[in-house]
Specification:
Elements: H1 4-27, H2 37-46, E1 48-52, E2 57-59, E3 67-73, E4 75-81, E5 87-94, E6 98-99, E7 113-116, E8 120-126, H3 127-134, H4 137-143, H5 145-156
Antiparallel strand pairs: 1-8, 2-7, 3-6, 3-8, 4-5, 4-7
Helix pairs in contact: 1-2, 2-3
């Protein structure tokens, strides 16, 4: 049996490792590159893990988005509708990859359908939580105006 102090140390150590892993994920995202370490920690503390079964549609092309995702474990495929109405896989994302970051700053419709390839854990953050944590999005956009323009241009294609 473990004493109270040992238990606290194990739990604290686990929490610190998880936070470091999540900060590592967020640090790789270009649009968040100018966030301070404190802002990144606040953001990672707000991420909610969501376990998703194989072949689940996470995001549907054309829907309005307000959720951002980081793949913690597992993988997803990105499907887009071709002009003839059929769908094709255009990309895949796995651990540490992300999607939906523009949904934190825009009401643009989703540009693709995202489907899990296997049981997957996604870290999620909705726009309302992001805004409450980071304050007005305007300051983030001002710091990242060039990166944001690149993303908008890319998603408008």
């Amino acid at each position: 049996c473990m004493d109270r102090e040992s238990f606290k140390c194990v739990i604290l150590g686990s929490s610190i490792k998880k936070r470091e892993r999540y900060v590592g994920f967020v640090s790789k995202i270009k649009i968040f590159s100018t966030l301070s370490e404190g802002e990144k920690m606040k953001m990672t503390d707000a991420l909610i893990p969501r376990k998703v079964d194989k072949d689940t549609v996470v995001v549907k092309e054309g829907d309005t988005g307000d959720m951002f995702y980081i793949v913690e474990t597992g993988s997803v495929r990105i499907m887009q509708t071709k002009p003839d109405g059929t769908s094709e896989v255009v990309n895949e994302k796995s651990s540490g990859d992300y999607f939906g970051e523009i949904a934190l700053m825009s009401d643009m419709p989703r540009s693709a359908t995202i489907i899990t390839n296997c049981e997957t854990v996604l870290l999620t953050l909705d726009r309302a939580t992001f805004v409450s944590l980071m304050g007005a999005l305007e300051s983030l956009l001002k710091r990242n105006v060039a990166l944001y323009k690149t993303y908008v241009d890319y998603t408008s294609v």
